[in-house]
Write a sequence for this structure.
């Protein structure tokens, strides 16, 4: 149910983003979605790729510091209030969302969001108990292909 | 005091016998060799003759070891000025090896060895490796660079003469180093301490735990490193990490070495005569006080060195060593008299920066200090490489690390400095000596 996310440390200077993307492209690894967290001093590039193990290996070989984190892909109804309802499910549970970002595609009347929880297992259990669809990596990939 | 013999003292290497010589005998031997070295230097090297004449000192005036202070100092610039062969005391036909040290500015310095000098050097290196607990049966991976740098060949011949199995892998190609270490069941490695940290990092990335390999000893030299760095290396590598000392001008590695007590470095005094002086006045400091290490070679033929100023700051360790060696010890060198820099009126040594970075949990000290002058004001920036151990996907965790580093530096130096987290490998990796300080202040003016 959890998806592996790769995070890369980048220095905050021009063209730092190009090289890792090119490395993945040359190996035929598809970037499903990404987000860049930037500060004045450095950046963290977070990626969901088609083959995380190969991707992580490749990037480490090239000298990047790569961190692998488990994140959760959640299907959210694409209508006003869809996200608010989902987030409401976490009220009073003590589960913290570290950060989140969206997939670039939609599917019918739903959107897919990536959540980084402090406790992903508890979060998944909670989501399921309130009837929200959590996607595994094969499912996520199938949806992209459709 | 109790003498704790080496575990393998029954199996003492014959070369190590002078390590245990009675002190009066050692002093007599030193005096005899000092007199012969001074005579040789005076007769064959113009620079020494001129300087001694200026001071009105003749070789026969050296009657006791204390007379050494009547001799002139020699500094690195003398070697550069006499480039390439100006300080040789042997005809070139007798010189069988030349080495050169990378000059940071301009010409390198050249050092020469006769057959006899190579035997002296090998003897010192055998005793160094034996003091680190190595012997026949050990497999030694020599990752010092082979070539003009004295580290590679010095350790190589010492290890062979010791009777160990030598893997002459030289520096670089880290993945292959790790493969060889694992596949050849290497028991000891010779390299710079920062290169070993790099090996540990890289092995981790390759999924190999050096702790679990047969490696048991690290023989580290060619750059200053701290006790906290040692603890880190020993814990992460599952090894005993020994500090060795040497410099090309004197012979190369093998001038001094720690023993298993890891409480100061024994100087191989039958070949090298050490003094500690006040770097400003040039006068000897009181016994046990800190000062600049000065060395006179006692056995070398091709290139005798009279009172060479090493610029390394140390002190004699007063008490005899529990290992039983009677050789005098010096404290580990953590700084040089010339690597100190002054920023906004505060004296800073790179070793202080290192201990501040180490104090922050999980940070391996790949760092560089950049000094700049902006608007007439000195600025100091410390670049610290991000390692897999401290990296996080969360911005807050990295900002927290950044703040902790800045805070630790402020506490240690009493100075606000800019910290910058940089990508791994962004700082040039050292296979020789790490360049810790980049001073751009003159260029920026």
């Amino acid at each position: 149910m959890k998806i592996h996310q790769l995070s890369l440390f980048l220095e905050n200077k021009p063209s730092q983003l190009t090289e890792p993307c090119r490395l993945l492209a040359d190996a035929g690894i598809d970037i499903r979605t990404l987000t860049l967290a930037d500060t004045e001093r450095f950046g963290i590039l977070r990626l969901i790729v088609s083959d995380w193990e190969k991707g992580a290996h490749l990037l480490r070989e090239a000298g990047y510091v790569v961190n692998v984190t488990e994140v959760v892909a959640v299907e959210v109804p694409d209508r006003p209030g869809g996200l608010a309802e989902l987030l409401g499910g976490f009220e009073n549970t003590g589960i913290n969302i570290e950060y989140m970002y969206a997939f670039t595609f939609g599917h019918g009347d739903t959107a897919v969001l990536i959540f980084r929880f402090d406790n992903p297992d508890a979060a998944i259990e909670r989501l399921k108990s309130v009837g929200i669809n959590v996607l595994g990596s094969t499912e996520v990939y199938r949806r992209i292909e459709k | 005091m109790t003498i704790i013999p080496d575990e393998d003292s029954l199996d003492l290497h014959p070369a190590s016998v002078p390590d245990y010589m009675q002190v009066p005998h050692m002093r007599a031997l030193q005096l005899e060799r000092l007199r012969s070295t001074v005579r040789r230097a005076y007769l064959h090297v113009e620079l020494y003759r001129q300087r001694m004449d200026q001071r009105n000192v003749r070789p026969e005036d050296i009657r006791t070891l204390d007379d050494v202070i009547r001799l002139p100092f020699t500094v690195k610039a003398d070697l550069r000025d006499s480039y390439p062969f100006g300080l040789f005391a042997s005809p070139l036909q007798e010189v069988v090896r030349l080495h050169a040290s990378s000059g940071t500015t301009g010409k390198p310095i050249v050092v020469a060895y006769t057959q006899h000098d190579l035997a002296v050097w090998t003897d010192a290196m055998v005793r160094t490796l034996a003091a680190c607990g190595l012997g026949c049966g050990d497999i030694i991976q020599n990752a010092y660079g082979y070539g003009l740098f004295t580290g590679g060949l010095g350790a190589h011949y010492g290890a062979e003469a010791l009777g160990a199995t030598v893997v002459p892998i030289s520096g670089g190609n880290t993945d292959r180093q790790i493969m060889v270490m694992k596949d050849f069941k290497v028991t000891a490695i010779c390299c710079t301490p920062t290169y070993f940290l790099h090996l540990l990092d890289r092995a981790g990335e390759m999924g190999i735990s050096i702790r679990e390999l047969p490696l048991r000893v690290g023989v580290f030299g060619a750059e200053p490193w701290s006790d906290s760095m040692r603890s880190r290396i020993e814990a992460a590598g599952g090894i005993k990490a020994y500090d060795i000392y040497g410099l090309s001008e004197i012979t190369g590695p093998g001038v001094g070495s720690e023993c298993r007590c890891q409480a100061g470095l024994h100087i191989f005094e039958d070949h090298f005569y050490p003094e500690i002086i006040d770097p400003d006045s040039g006068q000897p400091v009181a016994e046990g006080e800190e000062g600049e290490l000065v060395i006179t070679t006692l056995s070398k033929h091709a290139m005798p060195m009279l009172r060479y100023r090493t610029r390394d700051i140390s002190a004699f360790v007063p008490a005899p060593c529990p290992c039983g060696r009677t050789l005098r010890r010096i404290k580990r060198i953590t700084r040089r008299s010339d690597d100190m820099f002054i920023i906004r009126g505060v004296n800073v040594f790179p070793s202080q920066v290192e201990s501040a970075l180490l104090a922050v949990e999980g940070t391996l000290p790949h760092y560089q200090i950049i000094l700049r002058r902006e608007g007439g004001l000195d600025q100091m920036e410390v670049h610290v490489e991000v390692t897999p151990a401290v990296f996080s996907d969360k911005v807050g965790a990295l900002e927290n690390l950044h703040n902790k580093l800045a805070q630790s530096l402020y506490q240690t130096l009493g100075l606000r400095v800019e910290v910058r987290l940089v990508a791994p490998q962004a700082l040039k990796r050292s296979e020789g000596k790490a360049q810790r300080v980049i001073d751009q202040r003159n260029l920026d003016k």
In short: The two ends of chain B are 58 Å apart (CA to CA). The longest helix of chain B spans residues 23-44. Chain B has two domains: 1-337, 341-444. The domain at 1-337 of chain B is CATH 3.40.50.12780 (Rossmann fold).
